[in-house]
């Protein structure tokens, strides 16, 4: 069983930056995909970005050019660098990991973009 713990959320002004971290209790080397999702109040959860074991990445159109996902297998950690943040980026951000037969979720971290 792998546990995922997110950190790095908080309150930031529009135009600012945050870096989220997702630390896994076990090796992420075997994870086929790791991803960040977000859910804003009253809205459905949406996929923000994902990264495969081979390092391929993809992003939601709303964050392309502003967010960057990366993984450090040696540290069992996945990151989400968020730049040029907008009020509409406000949400709970959750980390997700998928192995061949298992899925894992973190508890989420709040990101609030407001002046």
Detailed description of the structure:
With 115 residues, the chain is mainly β. Helices cover 0% and strands 51% of the residues. It contains no helices and 11 strands. Strands 2, 4, 5, 6, 9, 10 and 11 form a 7-stranded mixed β-sheet that branches. A 4-stranded antiparallel β-sheet has the order 1-3-8-7, with no helix packed on it. A hairpin with a 4-residue loop joins strand 7 and strand 8. The radius of gyration is 13 Å and the shape is globular. It starts with a strand and ends with a strand. The mean pLDDT is 95.
Keywords:
seven-stranded mixed sheet; 11 strands; four-stranded antiparallel sheet; 115 residues; mainly beta
Question: Briefly, what is this?
Answer:
0% of the residues lie in helices and 51% in strands.
Layout of strands and helices, then pairs:
Layout lengths: L3 E4 L2 E3 L5 E7 L8 E7 L6 E7 L4 E3 L7 E6 L4 E6 L8 E8 L4 E3 L3 E5 L2
Parallel strand pairs: 2-11
Antiparallel strand pairs: 1-3, 3-8, 4-5, 4-9, 5-6, 7-8, 9-10, 9-11
Number of helices: 0
What is the quaternary state of this protein? single chain
Measured as a percent range, the helix fraction is under 10%
SSE topology string: EEEEEEEEEEE
Radius of gyration, in Å, reads: 13 Å
Shape: globular
SS-based class: mainly beta
How many extended strands?
A: 11
Instruction: Please indicate the percent range of residues in DSSP E strands (runs of 2 or more).
Output: over 45%
Give the uncertain stretches in residue-range form. none
Give a quick account of the main beta sheet: strands, pairing sense, barrel closure. 7 strands, mixed
- Mean of residue pLDDT values: 95
Distance between the termini: 40 Å
């Amino acid at each position: 069983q792998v546990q995922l713990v997110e950190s790095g959320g908080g309150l930031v002004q529009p135009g600012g930056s945050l870096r989220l971290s997702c630390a896994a209790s076990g090796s992420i080397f075997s994870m086929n995909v790791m991803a960040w999702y977000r859910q804003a109040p009253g809205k459905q959860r949406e996929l923000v970005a994902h990264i495969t074991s081979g390092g391929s990445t993809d992003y939601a159109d709303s964050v392309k050019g502003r967010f960057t996902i990366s993984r450090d297998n040696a540290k069992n950690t996945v990151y989400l660098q968020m730049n040029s943040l907008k009020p509409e980026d406000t949400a709970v951000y959750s980390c997700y990991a998928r192995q061949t037969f298992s899925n894992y979720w973190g508890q989420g971290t709040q990101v609030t973009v407001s002046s």
